[in-house]
């Protein structure tokens, strides 16, 4: 029910804000403000998105839980979407989502409503970086030539050039 209310309320709020701000600034400055916030917001989202991706890679490399970098990245995607939508309310929410402290606050609020379960894998152990794994190998180039491999069936014709 709350989703239906949001779908109805957000466009109405945006229209009201356009009318109020357009009456105060006039048409062209209002449109320039909407387009300017979208362009500036998207450039900031691209920069912070790269930083979030680097943080995610670092978390995976260090074998840390990647949930926080993934959540930051998802909220940055939402910020970019909101900034692309024309309107002042969506721009304000998108700009708030660009602030790392606000994203952390949103993640904490969502975390209070989410139950996390973990799946334990048994029998699989990833070796430590300094652990030595012994084994044998042979170089295929040193083996004697056993002749050319020949097909055991007639070609179908699909690979003919």
From TrEMBL:
It holds the Pfam family FxsA. Keywords: Membrane, Transmembrane, Transmembrane helix. The chain crosses the membrane at residues 6-25, 32-53, 73-99. It comes from the Bacteria. InterPro entries: FxsA. Residues 135-150 have a biased composition (Basic and acidic residues). Residues 135-161 are annotated as: Disordered. The keyword Transmembrane helix applies. NCBIfam families: PRK11463.1-2. This is FxsA family protein. The lineage of its organism: Bacteria, Pseudomonadati, Pseudomonadota, Alphaproteobacteria, Rhodobacterales.
